[in-house]
User: Which sequence fits this backbone?
């Protein structure tokens, strides 16, 4: 069944431009909401609003992980209030966005500690210190005179 929607290739951009609203997306595609509903049910197996919500929440996690604040993310995704974003995020993922940011911060701190520890163990030229007589026994190490 041919449809004008079959030719649409920039779904993500259209969804963002429609502020993740199914009616606005249908308008941008030049079809009725009902046509969009039938098309997405056939192609994606979900309602337009459900598909848009999933797309919006996937985008939210990307933005949070890239260092944006909850307020910035809620604004970029078209929420009028960050509390509405937080509620939708928790409903979708099962945890609050603040918990994701806290977990991300913990992981970053662990990574920073790990890098700092590696730097403490490295000598001035950036290679690990092997200690007296504990040089690696690799061929590369022997070529450098380490083993």
Assistant:
């Amino acid at each position: 069944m041919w449809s004008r929607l079959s030719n649409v290739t920039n779904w993500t951009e259209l969804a963002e431009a429609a502020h993740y609203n199914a009616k606005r997306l249908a308008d941008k595609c030049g079809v009725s909401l009902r046509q969009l509903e039938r098309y997405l049910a056939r192609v994606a197996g979900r309602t337009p609003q459900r598909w848009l919500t999933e797309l919006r929440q996937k985008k939210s996690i990307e933005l949070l992980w890239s260092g944006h604040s909850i307020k910035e993310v809620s604004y970029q995704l078209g929420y009028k209030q960050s509390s509405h974003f937080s509620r939708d995020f928790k409903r979708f993922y099962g945890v609050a966005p603040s918990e994701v940011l806290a977990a991300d911060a913990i992981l970053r701190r662990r990574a920073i500690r790990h890098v700092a520890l590696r730097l403490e163990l490295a000598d001035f030229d950036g290679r690990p210190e092997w200690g007296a007589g504990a040089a690696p026994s690799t061929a590369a190490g022997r070529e450098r005179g380490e083993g």
